[in-house]
Amino acid sequence: MTAGWAEADRILADVRPPVFPAVDFPITSYGAVECDAGAGIAAAIQACHESGGGRVVVPPGKWHTKKIHLLSYVELHVSEGATLLFSTDPADYLPVVETRYEGLEVLNHSPMIYANGCTDIAITGTGTLDGQGSWDTWWQWFHECDEDFKRLREQSWYGVPLADRDAGDRLRSSFVQPYNCSNVLIEGVTVVRSPFWQIHPVLCRNVTIRDLVIDSQGPNNDGIDLESCRSVVVSGCVIDAGDDCIALKSGREADGLWVDVPTEDVLIEDCELRVKYGAITLGSDLTGGIRNVYVRNCRIGGPYFALYIKTNAVRGGFVENVYLRDITVSEVLKEVVQCNFHRGEGDAGPLTPYVRNVELRGVTVERARNALLLRGYRNSRIEDFRLVDCTFIVDQPSTIHHAALSFENVTINGKSVKDVHQVR
Fold it and tell me: HSE-up of 294 (CA within 13 Å, CB side)?
C-alpha cells in the first residue's frame, strides 16, 4: 500500500453515520398536505426531537414546503416517489440565520434544509429534493449580487461583527447546510434545481455523504462543498453540477484567518463526476487550509479539470497531503491537474499560499487538452508533486512554473516520461 493511504482506511473506520430510534413520525400525522406541508414537517421534526429521536417520514407525493430546520436526533426520510418542492419566495427563508457565503461569515436567508449546532441528524431516502431554481427565480441573483458581495468582503476585512453585517438581499443560500453539526448523514436522495451550492456542510465533524444523485446546472451550482469540516466520507455519488462537482474549502480572507478551521481527513471514493469546472476542487476559499484528502476509484468525464487547486496571495492558505488513486478520466476540457496560485488577484496580497505532497497514482486519461498546469510563486514553490503509474493522452504540452515534480512509470501520448524533477 502506498504511504499515506493507511490514513484513508483510518478515516473510513472512524467516520460512522448516526443511528436513530426505530420510531416513525409521518408528516401527515402532523397536518402536512401536499399543497402546504411546511408546518406539518416542522411539527413532526419537533415531536421527533422531543421524544428522543427517530425518523420523520415524507411519503410518496409532491409536497410543497418552505424552509426545513432539522433538530438533533432527527432523520428526515424522503420516501421513494416523494418530492419536496421548496418555495421560491425569499420571504419564506426568513428570519436570517448564521451561515457562510463564498467563505465569508454572514447572516443570510436560511438554506432550504438547515441545522445549526445539532448532533445526530440525517437526510435519507430515495426521493427528490427540488429547489425549483431557475433564471426566473434564484439564479437571476447571480447577476444581481455584486454590490452585496463587495460590501460583505469589506465588512469582513474591517472586522465588522457578524451581528452588524449588512449583506443586502441578493446573496443566494445553499440548498442543504448542516452548520456546526456533528454526526451527519446525507444519503440516497436526488437533488435538483438548487438555488446555489447544493450540499454544503460548514464546521461539521463526522459526516457521511453517500449515494446521492446531484443534477443542477445553475450558475455556481457546486455539487458538494465541504467547508472547514473534519472527518468526512463521500462515496457512491453521481454529480452533474453547474460549477465544481466536489469542492473543499476552509473560509476566505480575514474571516478565514480568524475562524482558522481547516478542512481535513476527507475520503472520496466510487463517485462519478461529470460537468462543469473541477471534478475535485480545493479552494479557492482555502484561507484556513486543507489537508489529508484521499480520492480513489472515481470516474471523471466532462469537466474542465480532474483536480483543481486554486488560491492566490489574497486568500492564502495551504494544501498538503492529497492522494488520488485509480482514477479514470474519459475527458477533461482543459488540464487534468491545474494548481494555480495566480487565480483572481494573483500575488497582489499579504498571504502566501503553499501546496505540498500531492500524488496521482494509477490515473488513466483518455483525452485532455494538457496534462498539467502548475503555477506556484518564486518564493513559494509547489513542492513534492508526484505522478506514478499514470497514462495521459493530451493535445498540448504542460505548463510548469515554480514547481517540483517527480515521475515514475508515466506515459504521455505513448511516450515514457523519465523520472526527473523539474523546478522552474
Answer: 21
- 2 band by pLDDT with thresholds 50, 70 and 90: low
Look up residue 348 and give its amino acid. Answer: A
Residue owning grid cell 430546520: 69
201 pLDDT higher than 90: yes
19 closest CA partner among 65, 59, 52: 52
Summarize pLDDT for 286-295 with one digit per residue, the tens: 999 999 999 9
Q: What is the pLDDT of residue 148?
A: 97
**Ranges of each domain in the chain:** 5-417
The CATH architecture to which 5-417 belongs is 3 Solenoid (2.160)
Q: Residue 202 to residues 52, 169, 177, 199, 257: CA-CA distances in angstroms? A: 25, 21, 7, 10, 16
Q: Are strands 403-412 and 415-417 parallel, antiparallel or unpaired?
A: antiparallel
Ramachandran quadrant class, 189 (left: phi over 0; alpha: psi -120 to 50; beta: rest): beta
| pTM (predicted TM-score) | 0.97
Rounded-to-integer distance, Cα 99 and Cα 101, Å: 7
In this prediction, residue 1 carries a pLDDT of 46
Q: Return the sign of the alpha-carbon dihedral for residues 46, 47, 53, 56.
A: negative
Tell me the Ramachandran region of residue 417: left when phi exceeds 0, alpha when psi lies from -120 to 50, beta otherwise.
beta
